[in-house]
Each structure stands twice: as structure tokens, then as C-alpha cells.
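Running low. Invent one:
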Amino acid sequence: MDMKLELVYVPVSDVDKAIEFYTSIGFNKDQDHTLSEALRFVQLTPPGSACSIAIGTGFGEMEPGTLKGVQVVVENIHKARQYLLDAGLDIGEVEVHPWGSFVYFQDPDGNSWSVQQLPPKPSKK
């Protein structure tokens, strides 16, 4: 049985501001539906990802800015860092650990993200 993670809710205070932020860093806006004054659903997908994020109004119980540690994986952490810097994000230096290299950023509400480059796989002998 497959269990595919395909959608993660990200709590935001201003849907349009969040759309602007996430599309500015390359997320594709897949859906934007206002079903009523109280219910709006927006789905955004990072480039190359099978998992999307959902933002909106009228669903989800988390307070804006409370999602911590969502992680995306890239092939080249230095290129990803530069891409995010060029998009105007406040992002730290690359941190290198045995389990991967990382940089971190936050969306306008304070939801935190990590960007990881996996370590090289051990060579087979």
C-alpha cells in the first residue's frame, strides 16, 4: 500500500500576501477557489515536488506562523540559497552536517522552512 504525502496546510494571515510570497520563490499556483465569503482554498506546489501546500481561509485550525520545520530538498544548496537571496529572502549561511547541508527561511507569517541538500551517498565497493 502506498501512502503519499501530497498536501500540507500552511496557516497564513493574508492569503494574497502569502500567494505573492510563495510564487516569488517559484511555487506554482495550481488552484485558487473562493467557495464562499468564509472559505477560500489555494494550492501551491514547489518546482519539481509531488507535495503541495494549501493556504486559505475557513479551514485548518493552526494559528498563522505556527508551522515549523517544513523541509524541501534540493540538489545544490548553494544555488538554492542564492536563488532565495535573489528573491529577496532573509536567509542565513549554509550549515553543513553529516546528514546534509541546510539553509532556513520564514514566510511573512513566520512559518519556518528548511532547505536541505542530502549528503553524498557512500560509494559501493
Observations:
- The chain has a mean pLDDT of 95.
